[in-house]
Amino acid sequence: MASPLLWTLFLISIIFFLKSHAEQEDTPITRFQQYLRFRTDHPNPNYTAAVSFLINQAQSINLSTRTIEFVPGKPVLLLTWLGSNPKLPSLLFNSHLDSVPAEADKWIHPPFSAHRTDDGRIYARGAQDDKCIGVQYLESIKNLKSRGFSPLRTVHISYVPEEEIGGFDGMEKFAVSSEFAELNVGFVVDEGQASPGDEYRVFYGDRTPWELVIRAEGIPGHGAKLYDDGAMENLMKSVELISRFRETQFDFVKAGKAANSEVISVNPVYLKAGTASNTGFVMNMQPSEAEAGYDLRLPPMADPYALKKRIAEEWAPSIRNMTYTIKEKGKLRDHLGRVIMTSTDDSNPWWSIFKKAVEATGGKLAKPEILLSSTDARYIRSLGIQVLGFSPMINTPVLVHDHNEFLKDTVFMKGIEVYESVISALCSFDGVYDQVI
Ligand SMILES: *[C@@H]1O[C@H](CO)[C@@H](O)[C@H](O)[C@H]1NC(C)=O
Ligand SMILES: *[C@@H]1O[C@H](CO)[C@@H](O)[C@H](O)[C@H]1NC(C)=O
Ligand SMILES: *[C@@H]1O[C@H](CO)[C@@H](O)[C@H](O)[C@H]1NC(C)=O
Ligand SMILES: [Zn+2]
Fold it and tell me: Where is the signal peptide (predicted)?
């Protein structure tokens, strides 16, 4: 009779055999796991292997591939499925290759192992933001092809670098390139966000960040003296006015009249003043300069001209010896002066088709939203092209940029089905949409 130890070893080796066998399987889930393991996290994303992987996947389903490097080492990968009428405006499905960093010691599974738990959770940085959609686009096209479906309009898929650090060497350059113009893009689907409930979230615009710095100058003086026109005094007046404006905006949110992303947020991020001493600050002196920095976020419908007037006349008026600088990190109006957002009513055929396609899979869309922050979609919208932000993840906690980011295998698989419906419906649209670009 064999010893219990030998039996145990025998069983363990069988378990290992089965386990490694399962990992060698080639399924949509294992392909998703493979893509998640590439180290495209900041601060040193390496795109080489991830791009090769995607090219292999694309070639296996006969999509044409093209890599464009606007900045060396930062590739934009473009896949194309040619439509039967390539003259019609095309569709573009975009995702970014990079991800934010992960603090491995704060995760229950290593963030680049793409470990799949018994209940189907796949843990990895990028699982939700946004490697899921990058693989789902390919898998859905693979399924459509295997069913013999062929598109009327050409379908492009793009994978861009550097989204998480502003897209300056990625989508910003791609969007204004001749290569992009040649695609003749009519409608774009880009990343969205998970939904904890059972309705898919969809985004039609995002907020534009402004970095505001206000500076005050004033008469310096003894700390003991009461006098007018000091720099601190001048700055504090502005700080109070800005705080009041902030409250007014926040009141709309608190009263349930607007979502957080629908108001102008203005948050103080630094204060700088005082005369330095060896031990800290000189306490008996009122300084001659003072400065404050603010993070502003403007929803698409905000009036940038009115806000600039308010800043010039109330928040940093020259009459109070104040100056200011605004760094606008994006545009609020396109070159024709239009608000940069995508219309989500039935006057927009793209929207109607998209909505019906999601509903055809048994899904329901939540009320369209403005994104609290911003994504690469802004570079495309500012060209006058419509973009919806959509990542099909329902009943999923929002874990973008958080520890223990995960996506359930069943949610990932359902997403492929949703894209099959969305891609096939959009690329079959034979109507005309007179869009002025
Ligand atoms: C990026 O990864 C590839 C292989 O995947 C490797 O050959 C290359 O040296 C890496 N680049 C850098 C800068 O580390
Ligand atoms: C790709 O093209 C080859 C050659 O035309 C064909 O045999 C193969 O079935 C195609 N594969 C797919 C997934 O379309
Ligand atoms: C602005 O600066 C001028 C010149 O230094 C000074 O006379 C005036 O009182 C200052 N006004 C305020 C509001 O600080
Ligand atoms: Zn993202």
Answer: 1-22
